[in-house]
């Protein structure tokens, strides 16, 4: 007992230093855990306020929490004298190996994070991306699930979406319907234009502003072409497109306005032999 007491008296300053380092490490770990929880909680609230899927939010916040806790643990170990350089080297090597093995998955993951943060489209939007045109059903971390107009379910990797152009047909509240209507050269040009103007004017789905644009656009090989460009609400686009084409055909037929179509004349030549 006397030897222990003597040893303590001789090394009490060193032991006190170790004790203070241990207390500081515990404090660092405790405070770091509080900070990690707070930061991940703020991230979760911020993402939920942007109406991002809860599963995705939970996944991202848990990843951030894990990263902050690893950093906190390394700081605490460093405080008590543990050499953390080797730990960092091991983590770096492991991360590199995993990254090389899961290169495609990590690219999809990173692309999913970008889609979630910058929101070039959302669930329910009609888009053209990754070579697929359809309605967005779900946005997940590694993939986006879309439904085509003929109700096929297509799963598109997120990296393929962010790697090319994205056309969002639902992003704006209004769209312009672009139609090209051709009439024959022997038809009444003014009458045809008046009919087109009347058809567009009678459709209640066509917006008054911006004003519809109806002009002669081209004197083609076999037709005089009009551009017909009314503005409509985005949800009325296809209805106006299809209904206008049908109405134009029916009205032109009633009013005697010809719509040209490709024709081919076949001439048969016979050799006539004179009788000797």
From TrEMBL:
MF-aspect GO terms: mechanosensitive monoatomic ion channel activity
Name assigned to this protein: Small-conductance mechanosensitive channel
Purpose: Mechanosensitive channel that participates in the regulation of osmotic pressure changes within the cell, opening in response to stretch forces in the membrane lipid bilayer, without the need for other proteins. Contributes to normal resistance to hypoosmotic shock. Forms an ion channel of 1.0 nanosiemens conductance with a slight preference for anions.
Gene3D superfamilies: 1.10.287.1260, 2.30.30.60, 3.30.70.100
Pfam families: MS_channel_1st, MS_channel_1st_1, MS_channel_2nd, MS_channel_3rd
Organism: Alishewanella aestuarii B11
Residue ranges occupied by any Mechanosensitive ion channel transmembrane helices 2/3 domain in the UniProt entry: 63-103
GO cellular component, as recorded: plasma membrane
Matches recorded under InterPro entries: LSM_dom_sf (IPR010920), MS_channel_1st (IPR049142), MS_channel_C (IPR049278), MSC_TM_helix (IPR008910), MscS_archaea/bacteria_type (IPR045275), MscS_beta-dom_sf (IPR023408), MscS_channel_2nd (IPR006685), MscS_channel_C_sf (IPR011066)
Annotated PROSITE patterns: UPF0003
Location of the protein in the cell: Cell inner membrane; Cell membrane
Transmembrane segments: 15-36, 56-81, 87-118
Domain Mechanosensitive ion channel MscS: 105-170
4Fe-4S among keywords: no
Family, as annotated: Belongs to the MscS (TC 1.A.23) family.
Domain of life according to the entry: Bacteria
Domain annotation Mechanosensitive ion channel MscS C-terminal: ranges: 177-259
UniProt keyword annotation of Membrane present: yes
Keywords: Cell inner membrane, Cell membrane, Ion channel, Ion transport, Membrane, Transmembrane, Transmembrane helix, Transport
Principal cellular location given in the protein's record: membrane
Topology class, membrane: Multi-pass membrane protein
Subunit composition and interactions: Homoheptamer.
